[in-house]
Design goal:
35% helix; 4-stranded mixed sheet; 7-stranded parallel sheet; 11 strands; alpha/beta; single chain
């Protein structure tokens, strides 16, 4: 394996390539470069062909030599870095020794819907990256073929969101769309029943028709969905609360709704053609 760099010894925090990669921790820099950071061996492995450069401490590159060799064979640059440089690139307190620069993987909505996924999740204005990444992970687990980050939703390439997705960012078709209303209209045109998850929705989850293609819309943690957007859904659906809890948090409610669709439609395996950028 060759590292294709001048000098000797691992890169440091002052090496231009490390400095450039660190800039990807900012949303504007990610948008301009079309690249983002994925941290840890699991995320790097799932990223696969999206990896453009792999930074790793010498010990981590030795420990994950097979992964590094596979990425190098695909054309990724492999760059040893010091512990200090790795810590500067990572977003966790105790990084696992690997950080990859990856190309954006999102696709346009028409392309995502063209594969015919039976289950779609729309994150409309969800701002918390941990929640968004968790919903993305749950949607993947429930068999969704596409997850749409709509409106002023958090950047799916935010470091915390990428980590919370636990690799699911690379499993499903991720869409970024500026206009949530246009997304809902496109879903209706494509034959989806669109449900708005709403703690005060008129329809109980038990009574929702989930046999056909379904799209779930989840709003922000603090304010839910705006009334005009909720009005574009076929129905507002509430998860019944049987105990004394006032409500479910966003991630829990999304898990219940998405798995209700999965169980009703027997979507425990991915639909043919849905997502699937792995490898």
């Amino acid at each position: 394996m060759t590292h294709d760099r001048p000098g000797s010894g691992p890169y440091t925090t002052r090496t231009p390539r490390v400095v450039a990669a660190r800039r990807l921790q900012r949303r504007r820099e990610r948008a301009e470069a079309g690249q983002f950071l994925a941290e840890g061996p699991q995320a790097v492995r799932e990223a696969g062909a999206a990896v453009r450069e792999l930074f790793g401490t010498p010990s981590a590159l030795a420990r994950f030599a097979g992964l590094a060799a596979d990425l190098a064979a695909r054309g990724a640059r492999v760059s040893p870095v010091t512990e200090e440089a790795l810590a500067a690139l990572a977003g966790t307190v105790q990084p696992q020794g690997l950080v990859a620069v990856c190309a954006f993987v999102d696709v346009p909505l028409p392309q995502a819907l063209a594969t015919g996924p039976r289950l779609v999740a729309v994150l409309a204005g969800i701002r918390d990256p941990g929640n968004a990444g968790t919903v993305l992970r749950t949607a993947d687990a429930a068999g969704a073929g596409a997850v749409v980050f709509a409106g002023d939703a958090v950047d799916p390439y935010n470091g915390k969101c990428v980590r919370a997705s636990a690799g699911s960012l690379f499993h499903v078709d991720v869409v970024r769309a500026p206009e949530p209303a246009a997304v809902l209209r496109a879903l209706h045109d494509a034959g989806y029943t669109v449900y708005a998850a709403d703690a005060h929705g008129a329809l109980r989850l038990d009574d929702a028709a989930l046999d056909g293609p379904v799209a779930w819309v989840f709003g922000s943690e603090a304010h839910g969905l705006p009334a005009d957007l909720a009005g574009l859904a076929d129905a507002g659906v509430r998860v019944p609360i049987h105990g004394r809890a006032e409500s479910l948090n966003l991630a829990a409610a999304a898990a219940v709704c998405l798995y209700a669709s999965a169980m009703r439609s027997q979507l425990f395996t991915r639909p043919a053609g849905g997502g699937g950028r792995r490898g």
